[in-house]
Every structure is written in structure tokens, then in C-alpha cells.
Amino acid sequence: MRTAHDPPPKRQLKVDLDEVAFAMESRGFEITSYLDLETGEVIPVTQDARTYAEEILAQVGTDAGSAAVARAIMEHDMPDWERDLVVEAIAVELGFGERFITIPASDSSAGYEDMESFTETVRAEGLQARLLDAIQGARPFRRFKDAIAQCPEERERWFAFSNERQRQRVIAWLADEGIEPA
After folding, report:
1. Are 89 and 112 in a shared domain?
2. Based on the domain organization, do 96 and 116 belong to the same domain?
3. Which of 33, 36, 144, 153 could cross-link with 103 by S-S, CB 3.0 to 4.6 Å?
4. How does pLDDT run across 12-61, given as a tens digit for each residue?
5. In this predicted structure, what is the pLDDT of residue 147?
6. pLDDT value at position 2?
7. Residue 101 near residue 56 (C-beta atoms within 8 A)
8. Is 19 contained in some domain?
9. Is 17 contained in some domain?
10. Nearest alpha-carbon partner for 35 in 5, 59, 15, 64
11. What CA–CA distance (Å, rounded) separates 124 from 7?
């Protein structure tokens, strides 16, 4: 039996952890991704689609029916593929906080810590020294990538290591949001 001090039960949601991890890694000024809390789908919204969505909602109002929104979208001069993006942006705008939540950007310090942790596991002294040197200097991500590329087995092991760490960050973020991946 739950008490008042127990955390609320986690909501189960079918989520593609790799897709969420990709959204976290690729988030930038031009694209923000959202998690649909009903479907588990990742919805990327470009800045252009968001701008169109805001214009359309300002024109028709947030209480307008779907037919009025559809007409307003058709009145804007844009390619059909962009209309689809605007429809998604409007859905996110209208359902933000209830149906959609923002997927946060990855923290570059976490990626750096991954490189440090992985380097500690490398047994080939020459490669370990090169990786340590790479992450200590300027442009550590680029230099690490160049150094690890010289050893295909370790490169593959790095990808598996990095992917697992990213997945664990996604699972932790979902847990913070009260979501358990189904």
C-alpha cells in the first residue's frame, strides 16, 4: 500500500532509447526535440517550423479548431514537407507540458567524462597515452576521435561504451520525469 511519502508510480512508456539519446546529442539552436508522453515518439521541431507555428497560432488563436488551423497552414506559402513539420510544431505548442516535454541537450562534460572513463580501460599503453594526451589538449573530442580511429578494435569498444553511457543518461532523465521505459 502506498503512503503519502512514497514517490508516485512511474508511468510506463514505450520509448526508443537510442532515438532519445540521438535527440539529446544533436540538439542545437535550430532543432529542439520533444518526447510525446502518449506515444513515446521523439518529435524534432526546427526553428523555422516553430516560427510558422507561432504565426499561425497568433492568427487563429490557440482555441481554434483543427479545420481553422489546417486552413491557416495551407494559406502559408511553404512546401508540403514543411507543412507536416509545422503541424507537429503546433501539436507540441498546444500540448507542451501535458503531452510533450522537452528532451534536454547532452552536457558536453558528460561526453568528456565518458572519454576519461574509457581511456582508463584501455590496456594498450601506447594508445592509452595517446588518448590521455588527446583529452588534455585543445579540441579534445576531435583529437580523441582521431586517436581512437587508429585502432579499429578499441574504436568499436569505444562506440559500445559510449552508447551504453548515453543510454544510461537517457534512462536517468526518464526516471527524473517519472517515466519507466517499457
Report:
1. no
2. no
3. 33
4. 999 999 999 999 998 777 899 999 999 999 999 999 999 999 999 998 88
5. 96
6. 47
7. no
8. no
9. no
10. 15
11. 46
Query: Considering 60, 83, 102, which residue would you say is the last residue of a domain?
Result: 102
The range of the structural domain enclosing residue 36 comes to 28-102
Are residues 125 and 150 located together in one domain of the fold?
yes
**pLDDT value for 63:** 82
Statement to judge: residues 95 and 123 lie in one domain: no
Distance in angstroms (rounded) separating the CA atoms of residues 123 and 1: 50
| Alpha helix stretches (DSSP H) within the chain | 17-26, 47-60, 66-75, 80-95, 108-121, 125-136, 140-148, 152-176
Q: Distance between CA 76 and CA 166 in Å, rounded?
A: 39
Q: How many domains does the chain have?
A: 2
pLDDT of 5 reads 64
Using the structure block, give the residue that is written with the C-alpha cell 483543427. Answer: 66
Cβ–Cβ < 8 Å for 42, 55? no
State the chain's maximal CA–CA distance in angstroms: 66
Q: Which of 102, 136, 161 is the last residue of a domain?
A: 102
Residue 108: pLDDT over 70: yes
Q: How far apart are the first and last CA of the chain?
A: 23
Q: Residues 58, 72: one domain? A: yes
Predicted TM-score (pTM) of the model is 0.83
Residue among 19, 58, 15 nearest 37 (CA): 15
